[in-house]
């Protein structure tokens, strides 16, 4: 948070310095109109188009993060349900299922989450543990109807767990398009540059205008950058759903 504030203030101060230098060495011509009609129209269009790019980028990263939160919650909930359902399986299969789901969750928390925080995919080991969990719940042919029904519900939860895990893996690689990043950076620079197209004679007013606009654009771009890092950074999706269900894992 402090680093973000420092970057915003630093870039705003640089913009303010450019305004001061401009007014010192290239003051507005007294005969010049305070606001050029053409420059005003172009600046307005650039601002509108930049707002569209900014809004599209913000929606994109927010939806990606919201999807990641949903996948993590669904995965943790399915794993928790499988552990609860293991009590309705035959004794041996139930114990194997509990051990397998505990091993899977422990691997997710201890190995996969640190890797995802570095932008790396979870890896194959998690799928191997999920296959072990799928094999552990098989019940014998002479199982009671209740145990058979429990097995069917367990298989349904395993399917949900599988889908949620695939979604979580996709979320690690999902990022904002480079085209949108280009539009964010270039559009922000153009929007600030067009602030110098107006003949504002009062240097203090011009400084405040440019500083405010530059700080706002910088803050918004940094916000998009932080939200774009799904499993790391200031707004990282954490593993709290797993730790809430599996305190001892």
Automatic annotation (TrEMBL):
InterPro entries named among the record's database cross-references: DUF4239
TM region positions: 5-21, 41-62, 175-198, 204-225
Domain of life: Bacteria
Pfam families xrefs: Bestrophin-like
Keyword tags: Membrane, Transmembrane, Transmembrane helix
Name of the featured protein: Membrane protein
